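Dear support,

I submitted the protein below through the web form. The confirmation email said the job was done, but the results page showed an empty box. After a refresh the structure appeared. I'm attaching both so you can tell me whether what I see now is the final result or a partial one.
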Amino acid sequence: MEYQLSDSTGLQVSVTARNAGARPAPYGTGSHPYLTTGAPAVDECELTLPVTRWLPADERGIPSGPAQDIAGGALDFRAARRIGTAQLDHAFTGLDRDEAGRAWARLASGGTEVAIWAGPGYRWLQVFTGDTLDDAHRRRAVAIEPMTCPPNAFATGTDLIVLAPGEAVTHTWGIQVSGRPG
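What the results page shows now:
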């Protein structure tokens, strides 16, 4: 992993994997940054997600069916809206991207916006409001996790990357903060 931090572009994280073996190797990567605007809880924050589908999961978080359309449903955060009491612990896909191939998710409140981007190759975002955490951490931040494949991909093969012997791959994501609390 390589981390770069600059005043103009924020944090950029590059994750590189190389298959040093003699056989093909299944691979997937995901990172778990928790984002906060400084608000005491995420309920008043506005969330924007660049996604079109979500993956149903059972009580253990294992996918339980095909990806579903989010249009108009409780998980539709394509346009910025208040999180409120929504409890999120879902994998999302169908990412909308800008001209640079980045998918941007945003968390905003009190004049601060924290934006996370997932570069090409990241096909999924796991979003978690922390409802199952202890009282000191519950709903204090939102994890927005860029992933190359969904949960359980090593069993299902969904979006799993297979690296040939000697092959390497790099995926990049980052975080930018704008504004400051008033």
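Response: this is the final, complete result; the empty box was a page-load delay. Residues 13 and 174 are 6 Å apart (CA to CA).
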